[in-house]
Structures are given as C-alpha cells and as structure tokens.
Design goal:
Immunoglobulin-like; binds heme C; 3-stranded mixed beta sheet; Cytochrome Bc1 Complex, Chain D, domain 2; 2 domains; 5-stranded mixed beta sheet
Length: 242
C-alpha cells in the first residue's frame, strides 16, 4: 500500500477525514462520539472474528494482509492528534460504507457490535504497547490446542474457530501409510490444509469439514493454509509421521 511514501500518507489522511465526515452525517445522532455504552472487550473479540483475517492490528494480534494495516492507517491521524472519537467515527463509517467495488463487505458487524468494534479499534490502533487487564485476556491465543493425533487413519486438524489465522493445534502426529486429513472450519473464513512436499491438500472451504487423502512416508512435514497471507500470518504447523 505504499505507506512509506509521505504523499500517500497525506492522501490517506485526507481520505480518512472524508470518511469521518460521512460517519457523522449518517449517524444522525448528536451523541455519535459517546463511548459510554460501548464494550471494548466484546469489540476486541468481534474484531478478531470479523476483521482480523483481512487486517493487521498489533494489539489485537491479528495479521491479515488483504486490507490495510490498521496501525499504519491511523498513525498519521494520531500524529495529528486526532482523538479516539474521530477515529471511532472513521471506523464506524468504514464498517457501514466501505465503498462500492471494494473488497471489504459492508456491515460485517451492525448496531451495538459495530459500536464495540469501533470503540476497540479507536482505543488501540497505532498505539504502542499491549492490551492490559481484561482486554489482554479477551481473546484466547490461537494454536494452543493439544497436538492432533491420527486415529484409525484419520488426522483431524481444525482451523481456529474464532477467526484467527491459525490451526487449533500447531503440531500433529500420524503413522506412515494411507491417511485421511480432515480440517473442520467453523470460522466463516476461507481456509484449507496442505502438506508441504506431498500432493495432499484439502479444498478451500469457509465452513464444514474439508477432506483430503493420500499416503505419507515417515518424516517431518509442514502443514499450512494455502490462502494467500495465511501461512505467513501463522496458519502453519508441524506433522511428524512415524
Ligand atoms: C475481506 C477482507 C476485509 C474484511 C473482513 C474487513 N476489511 Fe476493512 N478493509 C479491507 C480492504 C481491502 C480495505 C481497503 C479499502 C477497500 O478496498 O474497501 C479496508 C479498509 C478498512 C479501513 C480503512 C483503512 C484506511 O487505510 O483507510 C478500516 C478502518 C477498516 N477496513 C476496518 C475494518 C473493520 C473494523 C472490519 C471488521 C468489522 C473490517 N475492516 C473487515 C478488507 C477487509
């Protein structure tokens, strides 16, 4: 996104200002800036589930790269001393009116959920440090599940159900020979599972259970998601075959 170029930052800041104006105009509410009823903890959870597969936001731990890095997007606004209220307005505007023909779907979250997401993003975007207190534990770390173990020729490795770019388990074991791979996916985000160095790969699915079959020799393999950006974001693990 050419964010190292100052001119593009200026252009981006101007775009964000225009978005802010839209957000206030459409809210039809004189109290649009109030955050008294918003819940940033719910907002963080909703952000990770609905936004994080496309956007990097350091404090949320998300690493999506389909859309702009949201820390970068709001860095200039922070330098220009925009308040959280203004940034909240931009985020709300973007959620409701992401622009025609763009990649971002409109109204991924609505009503109070949208308020909560905007509250969280405005509280953390382009701010150094880490979330503290209850915010720190609002989202369970991905990839911390027990190692996946093959049973009766079937090895099941689920995609993170909460929308993080990770599998539930980072390690898996299987015995050599014919195998069926299953990847349950409850996230609503496109994922698959491929085993590097073999022809074994499941189809890419948004929901349900993706399956693939093949034969594995003893060795150590890497399994990963082939959707662009997902492997780099952490959707990868190690499979040991004995
Ligand atoms: C499918 C991918 C995708 C999802 C999911 C998504 N976005 Fe976006 N987002 C984008 C893209 C791509 C852009 C760049 C503009 C465009 O193409 O619409 C963008 C732009 C933005 C911007 C403006 C940033 C800037 O630099 O101007 C904000 C703020 C934003 N998104 C917030 C969110 C929030 C909050 C959510 C969750 C409710 C979300 N996005 C979900 C893809 C996504």
């Amino acid at each position: 996104m050419g964010r190292k170029v100052t001119f593009s930052h200026v252009a981006r800041a101007a775009g964000i200002a225009a978005l802010a104006a839209t957000a206030v105009a459409v809210s039809g509410c004189t109290n649009a800036g109030s955050s008294s009823t918003s819940d940033p903890i719910a907002g963080k959870q909703l952000f990770v589930k609905n936004c994080g597969s496309c956007h990097t936001l350091a404090r949320a731990g998300t690493k999506g790269n389909v859309g702009p890095n949201l820390d970068d997007a709001f860095r200039v606004a922070r330098q220009e001393r925009w308040g959280d209220d203004s940034i909240r307005g931009v985020v709300l505007g973007q959620i409701g009116f992401p622009g025609k023909g763009g990649v971002m779907p409109a109204n991924l979250v609505t009503g109070q959920d949208a308020q909560d997401v905007a509250e969280y993003v405005s509280a953390v975007a382009a701010k150094p440090g880490q979330d503290a207190g209850l915010l720190a534990t609002a989202v369970k770390a991905a990839g911390t599940g027990k190692p996946a173990v093959e049973k009766n020729g079937v090895l099941s490795i689920a995609a993170d159900p909460g929308g993080q770019l990770a599998y539930v388990s980072k390690t898996a074991t299987a015995t050599a020979g014919p195998i069926q791979i299953e990847m349950p996916n409850k996230s609503g985000i496109d994922h698959n599972l491929a085993i590097e160095g073999t022809s074994i790969k499941t189809p890419i699915i948004k929901s349900g259970v993706a399956k693939a079959t093949g034969t594995l020799k003893p060795g150590t393999y890497t399994f990963f998601c082939e959707v662009p950006g997902h492997r780099q974001a952490g959707m990868v693990g190690k499979l040991t075959v004995k």
